[in-house]
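U., I forgot to send this yesterday:
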Amino acid sequence: MNLYPFFWIPSTKFPTNFPLTAPTKRVSLSLLRTERKSISTPHTRARPVYDRLAAHYERVIGPLERRWLGRLRAELLGEMPARARLLEVGAGTGLNFRHYPRGACGVASELSREMLLIARDKPERPDGVRLVQARAEQLPFADGAFDAAFATLVFCSVASPAQGFAELRRVVRPGGTVALLEHVRPAGLLGHAFDALSLLTVPLFDDHFNRRTAEEASRAGLTLRRVENHLRGVVQLIVCGVS
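Result:
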C-alpha cells in the first residue's frame, strides 16, 4: 500500500521526549523534523481532499460552531482525564485547541498538510502538544503511548474506520478512554435521506453521512461506555473504553 509519510510540524515549544515508534524505512528522522518550506506530499498519490478545503473550512463551519458544535466539543474534551497523555486524531485546523485540558501534553495528528499549517498558528494551541501528519489507519506511535484519545467529525471521512479504531486500541493504554463526536446515520426515515446524501458527499469530499460509528467502534473491540444523541440523532457523543 502506498501511504503518506509522517511529517513533523516543528515548533520550539514542543516537548522532545514523546514516545514514538522508531522511524520506518520509508521515513528518516530528519524528514520527521523537516522545516515548513520542505513539507510536501509524494507525487504518487493525490493530495488529501481537505488540503483544498482547508482555507475555507472555518468560514463554512463557523455558524455551526457558534450555534452548538463548540459546546459539544467542550463537552467531549471534558471526558479527557487531567494530566493525561492525549492523542487527537484528525485535528484539522485546531478548532479543539481552546477546549484542551489545562496543561495538556500529547499529539494532535491530521492527514491534511494544509490544515496542519493553519493549526500550527493557532494561539490556543497548548505548549505541550505536538503536531504530526499521519493517517488514522496508520499512527506512528508506540503501543500504549497515550492515556486517552479523541476525534471530532473525523470518522465520517476515514477510509477504513475499522482499521482506524484498531489503531486507537493499539496506541491507547488498557483502561484508557477513546471519545468521539461524530455525525452519524440517524434512525427512521431520516436515515434513508442520509443514505442518499452520501451518494453526493462521498465523491465530493470523502464525507460519509450514513456511518454507524458507535457500532463500528464496538465491532473493533472498543467498549462502549456511553452514547449520547444530539440533534435528533444526527450527531453522537461516543465514549469508549480500551481493554
